[in-house]
Amino acid sequence: MTVQETTGPPRAADPRRWAALGIVLLGVFMDLVDITIVLVAAPAIQADLGAGHAGIQWVVAAYALGLGLLLITGGRLGDLFGRKRMFLIGVAGFTGASAACGLAQGIGMLIAARAVQGAAAAMMVPQALSTIQVAFPVAERPKAFGIYGAVNGVAAAAAPIVGGLLVGDDPTAWRSVFWVNVPIGIAAFIGAAALMRESRAEWRPRLDVPGVAIVTLGLLLALYPLVQGSELGWPWWGWAMMAAAVPVLAAFAYAQTRRERAGGMPLVPMSLLRRRSFAAGMVIVVAVFSSISALFLVLTWQLQQGHGFSALRTGLTFLAWPVGLAVTSGTAVRFAATAGRRLVAVGTVLLVLAMSALIATIELADGLSAWHLVPGLLLGGVGFGLVAPILVNIGLSDVPEEDAGAASGVANTAVQVSSAAGIAVIGALFTAFLDHGPDRAAQLSLGFVAVAFLVGLALCRALPGTARSMS
């Protein structure tokens, strides 16, 4: 979807566009780091607040749900009311919610603050790509998007180390992973207010508030009992809630179909899902991205609670993954236009092999150390680097240009919502087998992750052979 200015002829390029881009990417960096940094701090939060495993799952999942469910709406609000305005609202909300997380006196308050933090990120993050489209001439956009991609990579590498350094061996220092956002957020707000140029769409997008409400209800009905079930002994009402989620989500699909046929702007245009390649791509997105956050949460529990790793040692161990990702992500982007499907297939094979290696390492290692896990994590990062940068783009390749914006919104929402769902499902599996020890629970959870990657591999043949041009 092309972003256009509101009125009049095209304006001259903003002379402060590069400085404004740096400010916008500061907000994006906060969001990306915050997704991962909390995983390393999870056991410290759990110990200090006296929370169970379910509470920590909600701390991670609430952010992903808040972000994912409002991501499309956040983009439309920027088009409607101004991208600079929505970015400032998002940064202010994110910064305030981060302070609330740092002040949380109980797990319930922390979960609520994390949900608000995710919702604020949904107002902030979509404005970044829109700003690049609006502020930069066509010739400069590849460089701007390249910087955006580099920030993604730096955030992925920095998050586990920063989290480990901030928490260290002090179980009460977890609050610092949230407080660190406050000065950064204040700086981003002041910089954006001074440097960003306001812009909004020429057309008037329509919001789908009922759609957001229905899908939120359906997902909560499905995820709440999955997260809480093991600790509560799987009560009958949990099964009833999961059963009720089916008609609610069916009602969402029906409402979206009716809205689309009436000429409205649904959150999820159901006609897109009738395209075999797009539907297969979204299933692969769910299979892959539902596993990643859950994978690191499970390993964090296993290493810190089962083997006495500090937060810093855990973060340094996890660094092998983004290192592997950095090795192959550039290659994936470079050859996506000619060999995209094959790259995704090879990547998913490597992810399956990486999970198998980690399972075998946990089983065979005598006195598990970080060095035992590094080869499997490095291999997983190499595989993920072949998949993550290009999977969404390949899934969009057969989508008509006029539907590309809506399809991109659906895909990015699927990434976030599936992350929350994976944490619920795989976290519940880990908790259910914890009586057999953290190592056995981790192995079974990693086995489930490997199966998810195999599902993705099986569907690769349905993908288009190449990616849409990334220019």
From TrEMBL:
Localization per record: Cell membrane
Sorted UniProt keywords: Membrane, Transmembrane, Transmembrane helix
One Pfam assignment: MFS_1
Domain of life: Bacteria
Bilayer topology term: Multi-pass membrane protein
Major facilitator superfamily (MFS) profile domain segment(s): 20-468
GO cellular component assignments: plasma membrane
Residue ranges of the TM segments: 18-42, 54-74, 86-113, 119-138, 145-167, 173-195, 207-224, 236-257, 278-298, 318-336, 343-362, 368-392, 413-434, 440-460
One annotated GO molecular function: transmembrane transporter activity
UniProt keyword annotation of Isomerase present: no
Record protein name field: EmrB/QacA subfamily drug resistance transporter
Taxonomic placement: Bacteria, Bacillati, Actinomycetota, Actinomycetes, Streptosporangiales
